[in-house]
Amino acid sequence: MFDLNAEILKWRDNLAKSDSLDDPVLSELESHLRQEVESLASGSLSEEESFWLARRRLGGAGELAGEFAKINKVAIVKNQLFWMAAGVLAYMLAVQSGTAASWLSVLLAAFGGLRGPGLGIVHVTSQMVVLGGAMYLCHRVCMKIYDSSGFSRWADSRAERIALFAALGVLVVLLATARVSAVGLANFIGVDEYGRVAIVRAYTQLALGVLLPVVMAVAMVLLRRSNSNEAAT
Amino acid sequence: MAIYKDLVAASATPLILSILAEGESYGYAIIKRVRVLSAGQMQWTDGMLYPVLHRLEKQNLIESTWRDSDAGRRRKYYKIKEEGTEALKEQRNQWMTVYSTLRKLWENEPCLT
User: Fold this and answer.
1) B4 dihedral zone (left: phi>0; alpha: psi -120 to 50; beta)
2) Interior CA angle at A137 toward A133 and A143, to 5°?
3) Which terminus of chain B is less hemmed in, N or C, by CB atoms within 10 Å?
4) Cα–Cα distance, A184 to B112 (Å, whole number)
């Protein structure tokens, strides 16, 4: 059974993903769409056929977004800056999660009696695993926000602002954990042993410093490619 | 005969301002009116009207309010402003100049088709 309201909601959610189409614009377009459906359905078309035709007459999401984008350039740039800042924050969260986890696990391993190269291995493994996990988590959260159709208005609501500041709080905790663990480790295993861990850490950071930008660049190319594929279809 | 796309786009502003000069209206009705006036020969993709309306509002030529229609449908109504009437006068002069120039040229060979 064709459910007009559900279809209109789906159509609206899809348009809402665009930077340039905000809520008032969507309401206006919806009002138009409904009137067109009503007018077409009063003829020989079914409600479902009327919806498809009315939607087609109104124009595609890309077309509409493109036209509105021309008049809302400033708002769109601001929105993009917002997400850039969000990206930097997410990146810092991921990197600091890795750092905090690595120091904490080395400290715990040292408490457990581990010494020598083993500490270095614990360090590298925990950092990589947690960093990867945190990045994946950031990706999932972003996709969830994107799918929720509130993409262009995220951080408008109170709950979302609280979530944003909670993320900052987590970042501070991560930074503190890393520093406290590192100092604790140096005091616990002595400076010589700590120096060996520090050497491993230097190599890990070199590897990450090279690897992460490469991952980012590849991700950017892939995103651009999937974008142009979407535009082509 | 379909009208050349750029010409349709260029005429959107004077068309909308002229329709609103007759009285307050809303997107759906404006599109219907253009369709009837041009006997269906000026076809817009319906959605393309709205960005133009929003641009005109941003330029302070028209203003809008959300209201319920008699049938209980929520609609955004547009009204021309003083500045819009002025802009329309200017647009009108420009279009008339183009029109009279072309007419002078075409008067000599009235039957092109």
Assistant:
1) beta
2) 145
3) C
4) 93
Residue A33 CB burial class (10 angstroms; 0-12, 13-18, ≥19): buried
Amino acid at B105: L
Six-digit token pair at B39? 């006997």
B84/A contact by beta carbon, under 8 A: no
Judged by a CB distance cut-off of 8 A, whether residue B55 touches chain A is yes
Mutate to test the interface with A, among B13, B28, B61, B78 (most CBs of A within 10 A): B28
pLDDT band with cut points at 50, 70 and 90 for residue B43: confident
- Which of A105-114, A137-146, B18-27 is least confident? A137-146
Residue B23 per-residue DSSP state: S
Q: How many CB pairs under 8 A join A and B?
A: 55
Non-local (6+) Cβ contacts of B79 within 8 A are B20, B24, B62, B63, B64, B65
Q: What is the pTM of this model?
A: 0.62
Determine contact, residues B76/B26, Cβ cutoff 8 Å.
Answer: yes
Burial class from Cβ neighbours inside 10 Å (0-12, 13-18, 19+) for residue B77 reads middle
- For residue A125, the tally of other CB atoms under 10 A from its CB is 14
Contact call for residues A223 and A231 (beta carbons, < 8 A): no
Of A25, A36, A70, the CB nearest to B50: A25
* A144 CB within 8 Å of a chain B CB: no
Q: How close is the nearest chain A Cα to the Cα of B77, in Å? A: 10
Residue B80: the pLDDT is 95
Q: How would DSSP label each residue in A72-87?
A: -HHHHHHHHHHHHHHH
Q: Using CB atoms, which residue from A34, A36, A68 is nearest to B51?
A: A68
Q: Render A20-58 in DSSP notation, one character per residue.
A: S--HHHHHHHHHHHHHHHHHHHTTTS-HHHHHHHHHHHH
Tell me which of A79-88, A130-139, A172-181 is least confident: A79-88
A160 touches chain B (CB under 8 A): no
Q: Please report the sign of the dihedral spanned by the C-alpha atoms of residue A133, residue A138, residue A139, residue A141.
A: positive
